[in-house]
Amino acid sequence: MKDIGFVYKKVNKRKIIMERNDIALARCSFLRKAKNISDWSKVVFLDETWLNANQTVGKSWTDDTAQSCTKVPESKGERLIICHAGTASGFVPNCLLAFKSKKNYRVS
Description:
mainly beta, two-stranded antiparallel sheet, 1 helix, (African queen) hypothetical protein
């Protein structure tokens, strides 16, 4: 593939990720407090993620011609939101929350 001009790379136009100062400050504050935790078995972690119906890959083989580019949908479509809680010993029983969002998300 490389011999004919293709490279495997991220295909979106986003070059850098910017972070708000208040978010960076909150993370620093949390990490300072976390250093003082002696019993991690009493800590519960929460996380959320999502999956779009029209999810596309972030990387693909391309030679930057239109023929080698992935067709991008006009809409991200419906979104499945997934939340869960866990501790040092594993997931908390009966804490999985998964639901379909009521909003359709547009590609920006």
